[in-house]
Design a protein that fits this description.
This protein is α+β, with helices and mostly antiparallel strands. It folds into two domains: about 90 residues, no CATH class; about 140 residues, no CATH class. Helix content is about 35%, strand content about 15%. It has a six-stranded mixed β-sheet. A three-stranded antiparallel β-sheet has the order 7-8-9, covered by helices on one side. The relative contact order is 0.17.
């Protein structure tokens, strides 16, 4: 049953992912190559799709080229496919904050007592030795600026740009995305190193709990590789397998509701 499920998942990915990802005639070898060399193509399968009730616009903060402490807030139309540019995921906990993408509620949240956790997370990753530290360093700089220019009005009450943007965004009926553009103009979903961060963080958030942590150094029941394994049947995970390895190859099953037919 597990082998059949793995083949189903691999067949799905071979159809979904572009042909320039390598020779697909050997599914596992092809998939492991994609995971190593094109990991940005996989992180999206862990993300929740944007709800239809989202606002028709999203908002982007970027550094002002002539103001060292000023961020520019831009309104952009949200069109189908833009969710790939805005990879938001829910971090467990009511006060957990976000990362490089925030969901701004119609009640003008999250509040500063929550975004302080966002800043703490950004600072931690910016100071790390990981490949994504530059991305988080730029996010920390832009979100932390003390002035925001929006629609030719300069807001300068001393609040962090992230908090100011959450307060002044003119969306009162629907939740919208708020993110930042780096020095190259890239949004988080366009940044390869951020995709690598997601591939590391998302499985840990989705498939582990304090009582059911990652299991190290044992063989995966699906591919037999010795690596980090994730526990099975966590509430809300949408999977019920012997275990789930960090490949994430089954993540699409929960999105397609196929696991309900094939789970053991």
């Amino acid at each position: 049953m597990l082998e059949a499920m793995s083949q189903l998942a691999l067949d799905f990915l071979r159809e979904e992912l572009p042909d320039d990802t390598g020779d697909k005639s050997e599914p596992w070898e092809w998939y492991l190559g994609v995971r190593e060399k094109r990991s940005e193509l996989l992180s999206g399968y862990f993300l929740e799709p944007a709800r239809k009730s989202m606002a028709p616009n999203y908002y982007v903060l970027r550094a002002h080229s002539q103001g060292a402490d000023t961020a520019i807030l831009e309104q952009r139309e949200f069109i189908p496919g833009d969710e790939a540019l805005l990879p938001w995921f829910k971090i467990p906990g009511n006060m957990a904050g976000d990362v490089s993408v925030t969901k701004r509620s119609n009640s003008k949240g999250p509040r500063p007592n929550v975004t302080k956790q966002t800043f703490a997370r950004l600072e931690k990753e910016a100071k790390s030795d990981e490949v994504w530290n530059r991305h988080f360093s730029e996010a920390l700089d832009v979100f932390g600026r003390k002035e925001v220019l929006f629609n030719e009005i300069l807001y300068e009450d001393g609040s962090a740009a992230l908090d100011t943007a959450i307060r002044i965004i003119p969306e009162d009926k629907n939740t919208c995305f708020l993110t930042f553009a780096d020095s190259r103009g890239l949004l988080p979903g366009q940044e390869d190193s951020y995709a690598q961060y997601l591939n590391k963080e998302l499985p840990a958030h989705k498939y582990t709990t304090k009582k059911s942590p990652i299991v190290e150094g044992e063989a995966c029941s699906i591919c037999s590789r010795i690596q980090s394994l994730y526990p099975n049947a966590l509430p809300g995970a949408g999977l019920n397998l012997i275990n789930v390895d960090r490949l994430g190859v089954f993540s699409h099953l929960s999105n397609q509701n196929l696991w309900k037919k094939y789970a053991v």
